[in-house]
Amino acid sequence: MRQLRIDMGKCDAGRTCQHECEEACAIKVFKLDSPEHAALHIRELADGTGQAILCDQCGDCVVVCPADALRRNKMGAVVLDKELCVGCYTCIGFCEKGIFERNPEWLVPFKCISCGICVKACPHAALEIVDVPQPEYRII
Amino acid sequence: MNTILVNGDPLEWKDGMTVRDVLTLKRFTFPMLVITVNDNIIDRKRYDTALIPNDASVKVVHLMSGG
Amino acid sequence: MSSHTTETDYPKFQRCEVDFTQRTEYLDGLEAMKAAHKVLKEWTFKPSLPQQGYTNRTLYLNVGTLEVKEKAVTQQMKDMFIGGRGFGMWYLWNAITPKTKWNDPENEIIITPGPISGITQYPGSGKSLVVALSPETEIPIDSNVGGYFGPLLKFSGYDSLEIQGKAEQDLIVFIDGQKGLLRIEEAPAEPLDSHVLAEILTRMYAENDADRVNISVVSSGAAAEHSLIGMLNFSWFDKRRGCIRLKQAGRGGIGTIFRNKKIKALVIRGPEVKGDMNHPVDQETIAKTGIKLHQELRSNDPVQCLMRRNGTAHIIEIMDAYDLLPTHNFQYGSHPEVHKIASYVWDQRCTQRTTDGCWYGCSMACAKGADGVVLQTGPYKGHRVTVDGPEYENAAGLGSNCGVFDPEFLLELNFYCDTYGICTITYGTLCAFVMECYQRGILNKERTGGLEMTWGNALDDLAMMHQMAQGEGFGKIAGLGVKRMKALFIANGWGDAALINDIGMENKGLEYSQYMSKESLAQQGGYALTNKGPQHDEAWLIFMDMVNKQLPTFEDKAEALYYFPLWRTWFGLYGWCKLPWNDVAPSDNAKTAEPTKIPEHVQNYLDIVSAMTGKKITSEDMLRQSARVYNFQRIFNIRMGKGLRLHDHAPYRSQGPVTKEEYESRIERYEKELRDQVGVDPTTMSLEEKMAATRKYRIDRYEKLVDAVYTRRGWTLDGVPTQARIQELGLDIFPELVEIVKAHGG
Fold first, then answer.
1. Closest Cβ opposite residue B41 in set C540, C579, C591
2. What proportion of chain C, given as a percentage, has pLDDT over 90?
3. Which fold has domain A2-127?
4. C666: which of C46, C216, C588, C704 is 20 to 30 A away, CA to CA?
């Protein structure tokens, strides 16, 4: 399955970049001029290091969705069917990575689908899409 | 007297007695508990290690249950 | 050490890997059944979505005259009764007279979801309340049920569905909330039993596969027709399993009324559900509050109640450890074989790795399902079915209380109760009574028509249930319930009347639910001082009283029996489930002033109501809203010739040891009580004297408790709300209420 990965040795958490990854995600994927509504986040920590909040397509949200609105696509990425979504946000509450998110303007939540737009946008080539085995679904 | 009070009832105190020992002796197996030893709250993580002094008043408040 | 048995403790049990999509299908003949329908009435309406939780319309339907109409939900109704159980009580009050009997056409079944029902963000927000005049108690009954029917009714345009009248032929009422169409159809061909009927109707009325989730069926079953303990099943379509699931409006015989009205099923087809269909004033607060509870469940449920894995069955072995698991008709509180039906077994037997909420967004997800159950008896012998649960009440009532410790038989008993449309709690308690009567010679093989009702005889237990569904044999007598069986056995001269009355676990005509109140005075009141009868959904005080010893005085107990019944009533006014209130708790709950109330969760509920309606409410408002409906219902009971102190009498089995064996099983406790509380020396007394002294002491204490509770509730010592209390609650705007309390010295 396709999974977004980051090399924190290359990512400098915004010191010499403009968070192009988040910006590209917000603009190109969600048509929003607000990087806070991107499906990945790079946080600058007080000690100068960075923290990446990325979806690893673990599939926990697939298990907990009561509307069966979350499924893996052909590439293995977990995709939300907005038509089926009932806006319960169980996926958000049960996402251990804190990367299933919502925009207060929208009823349905959003998530990363490993599309790779952010990969191309990163000036340090810190992000990549890798192909990894799909994990077993967990009992949560 | 080597005695403590658990929810007001006497229980024999032993040296090294932990909160877990009290729960086992009293068969308090319900998971939703609020435990105080001499009015100090004992966090769930400390049940195995928190020692109970002699003469202590232990309160094991069970939250409600029942469908 | 966790309270929950772990897999390593019982390595012989392996996780049950069942294909949960496989089961016996019942769709043959669907087209022929459909073709046999005859449309008796078509009626159109304008579908609408709620605004701030209300659609402001009620759908009234008379299945006898075929009258269908809309009624306005007035501001006064919303102010005085809120919704849910409150609306149900109000409609029933207006529909019947003090002379109405349960099987009169004017009796109603009212289904009301409540103003927050249908929220998808906060767990436990999809409940419907069902109200009717009960055949068992002959006073109003209310039942809180999940499944999709209520929310879909609301999203079709109606706050309540009020059903009156009696049909002559079996009917199906179909409400299409997408098209604005209601059809009453004669439906002669479908079977009655819910696991078949709801499956067939879901497919019959869905326009395509994707539409099945928009269908919900209310149905009963064969045994509801021949007993007084009928129940209603509310369905939803489980997409992953590819089958319908059922939740039950169990108590008090509403399914019996349903069949007496010749209703085969109610079917709703609602619109596709989205996250804001209640149109709250403040969606954002509801979203944030919901996510907060989802997160709390994710992090705390695995170390607290494991509701997501075991549902309410998580307390089976806990009740046993505290001597509270009803065993052999509430004689004892524990049993050495309990490990065979403990939560560990259900954890293995139920399908995990799926989602089991009875409404969208309930991440507590306690509606577990055991798949691949192959039935061993009855009309569905050999069929492979999915059984919901078992919930704690079923495992205790059908299991330990009857001495059945075989999990597969327990599932089968649970399955047949559900599909036959009878209440598992009621059946468990009445079967336990039958078995004890058999043990004590009040019944024998001749009197039961050949059934050997010995403890744990699951095959004859099931045979009795099948008889109930057929309307024959001793099963038909058992289906009258404990109160009427007692009268019948006494009238037949079968055994000692006093003993029969002591061991028959009913109050107001309703069977006790599955907790031992014997050693908790407060819980004795929690059961017998209820409006509808001894169900645990008013006050569950056993731990507070018996274990924590937080309620030492009568006044303390009375305060708990004031607050908690009002708090619990409130869930039923709004359409909430109680379980997410206290079967999970915030990590810092211990540090709050009153941990047993779970203050953060109380605030969540208040915040959501305020966000829904735009009117900020406090916990004082909550108590007042509940107290109005609670006192209204009490006066309603009085209007129906009940509702007085005499009707709050409890069977002695719920209060103390009836038999020598029971006394001896807890002799230390009872002798300590005699020494320390009664002030006598048990060593100088015979067993009979000790039992008599215990009984006198306990009944005296119960009467003192009743005095204290009535006083705290603002009632006279005969249990009648005082005029001052009803004025304070604003209920005096209804002159008939004032007249009733006046006439009874209130």
1. C591
2. 96
3. Alpha-Beta Plaits (3.30.70)
4. C704
